Amino acid sequence: MTPPRAKIAITIDPALLARVRLAVEAGSARSVSAYIEHAVAGQLAAEDDFEAMLAESLAKTGGPPTDAELEAAARLLAGEALADEAA
């Protein structure tokens, strides 16, 4: 049994819609709705993968940068020497 679906209305660039319809005609998806649903699922999966990778990286490096580390990075990006290097 197919899970229930919510019907929505979207606004999309006509050129994108034309490409989606061509993909449906070519058999890449059973409908425009199915194509859009697949695209949204792919985007959400990519975001989930990125969040997992970021959490893993932060865990390996001791967590997010501290305020002092962010300030030091800002100074470096601005071309300023760090206090340790100035001495």
Structure keywords:
87 residues, mainly alpha, 66% helix, elongated
Description:
With 87 residues, the protein is an all-alpha fold. The mean pLDDT is 91. Helix content is 66%, strand content 0%. It is built from 4 helices and no strands. The longest helix is centred in the middle third of the chain and has 30 residues, at 32-61. It has one domain (14-82). The protein has helices spanning 14-25, 32-61, 67-77, 83-86.
Supply the number of helical segments: 4
Provide the residue-averaged pLDDT.
91
Strand content: under 5%
Shape: elongated
In the predicted model, the low-confidence regions spanning at least 5 consecutive residues are: none
Largest sheet: none
Distance between the termini: 72 Å
Structural class: mainly alpha
Give, in order, the helices and strands: HHHH
Strands, total number = 0
Gyration radius, in Å: 23 Å
State the domain count: 1
Helix content: 55-70%
What is this entry, summarized?
This protein has one domain. The chain is built from 4 helices and no strands.
